[in-house]
């Protein structure tokens, strides 16, 4: 961590982006920081146009001062104040709530660029990201599919993975945003070995010195010895055995209808799910607002909400800040691993 971060009064700093400024991101950010910001173990600096936060505070009925900053050499903290690094995109312009807008996309992209740059240079210990609208960033000229791809380009990383965290438990994904058919086609021993090894590395980086990982099965009852499918026999079990031979504590394939319950019973520290919904359904059914996303593989800490911009309720002050609160508080906790993250994933 740089001298600038170390000299910030008392606590490490985190850069918080609101995502699309006409979605619910500004509202859930203001609510989170007024509720838990003062007592958290890290300090938040929102990366946005200050007027966006002031408008969000107004629709939420929150009386808070927004202090504009133009430097990461942070001033002394003050109660009742949200610090905002001014990105200078929208100024005082008020865009319509809940409408796809190129200018909103430009603000969202600029905030991500500024926050990521600060983390790469050591001005902050990590970033927390609010929800973006893909149509808006594409209208603004971004060529990236979303946050993860943009962060990869900004940090020079070509492979990143998602780690869900829910009440301290971690869930990983062998495949992500592809159809179920494509996910099944991607199953192979080599792919599984790589996914298992990456999950184990992430568990070590985030505080599990001797990680215990379970690999979820794909087919009902784990395939019933081939009666319900051979993926477990042909691909998953050989991959598990190959990694176990290195001394790693890896179990599986474990039937998916029980592996997440076993995770909650503390049998494992993490589970490698085989496809997007397998892990998402388990985590979000258990605790929707408490489930947050961490991008592993980047040389910086990044936590994120795991929901969209909710344009239908943006500007009403009704948005639930639960997931943003969880993302921010987990980033506070994980900020202690900033050096580990940089050492493991930095070039």
Automatic annotation (TrEMBL):
Oxidoreductase listed as a keyword: yes
InterPro entries reported for this sequence: PdxA_fam
Record-listed E.C. numbers: 1.1.1.262
Span of the signal peptide: none
GO MF annotation terms: 4-hydroxythreonine-4-phosphate dehydrogenase activity; metal ion binding; NAD binding
Superkingdom field: Bacteria
Keyword terms of this UniProt record: Metal-binding, NAD, Oxidoreductase
PANTHER family linked: 4-HYDROXYTHREONINE-4-PHOSPHATE DEHYDROGENASE, D-THREONATE 4-PHOSPHATE DEHYDROGENASE
UniProt family annotation: Belongs to the PdxA family. PdxA2 subfamily.
The protein's name: 4-hydroxythreonine-4-phosphate dehydrogenase PdxA
Underlying gene: pdxA
